[in-house]
Amino acid sequence: MAYQRLLTSLAVTTSALALSGFILIEQVAGVGGQMTADQQNTADQANHLWRHRLLLVKLADKEQLQPLIDSLKSIEQQQALSERKLIIYTDIDNKYYQLLNQGQLIEMSSLSTEVQTKLASEQGVRLVGLDGRVKAYYSASEFNLQAVIALIDTMPMRQAEIIVQSAQ
User: Fold this and answer.
1) How many Cβ atoms sit within 10 Å of the Cβ of residue 152?
2) What is the CA radius of gyration of the chain?
3) What is the pLDDT of residue 113?
């Protein structure tokens, strides 16, 4: 019984944190609803915080990205990323892209300053958690999407998501 109360409390706390991100977006936009470029960057950060995990990929060239692109053509991989709320961004020749299902690359016209900064650092792959912090770093040679998925599944927030999903 105490365990169920703890899980319920965790689910409520998680929901409250996600809701606070939404409130932040409204506060950033202000009364008129128009945002400056700086405010938009803040809103971009708030959009991901507590809602998405990010996989930030910076490699030497597009050819190094090909194994990841190929792996996303699998329906099982697409479902695994969706269940884990994982969004993939990449930097190719100082242009930012989101890697979508089926391995499609969509160029991003803007990306939050924080995400750009994390992408601009050394080559490799960074996993950013729901809380906005880098949880793991992989070199290009050691990166494996299955290992990232396995790591996410060990995280407390993911464990709570699994429990909430199984209770529904």
Assistant:
1) 24
2) 17
3) 80
> Angle at the Cα of 156 (from 69 to 146), degrees rounded to 5?
25
Helix, strand, or coil here: 89? strand
Q: Which value, to the nearest 10 degrees, does the dihedral of the CA atoms of residues 106, 90, 156, 149 take?
A: 80
Residues 6+ apart with CB under 8 A from 65: 57, 59, 90, 92, 99
Per-residue pLDDT reduced to its tens digit, 96-146: 889 987 788 888 887 888 888 787 778 889 999 999 899 999 988 888 889
> Which tokens is 156 given?
């407390």
131: helix, coil or strand?
coil
Q: Which residue has the tokens 């912090």?
A: 133
How far, in Å, CA of 165 to CA of 118, rounded? 31
DSSP letters along 8-54, please?
Answer: HHHHHHHHHHHHHHHHHHHHHHTTT----HHHHHHHHHHHHTTT-EE
Residue 94 neighbours by CB distance under 10 Å:
8
| pLDDT tens by residue, 32-88 | 334 344 434 433 555 778 889 999 998 877 888 888 888 888 888 889 999 999 999
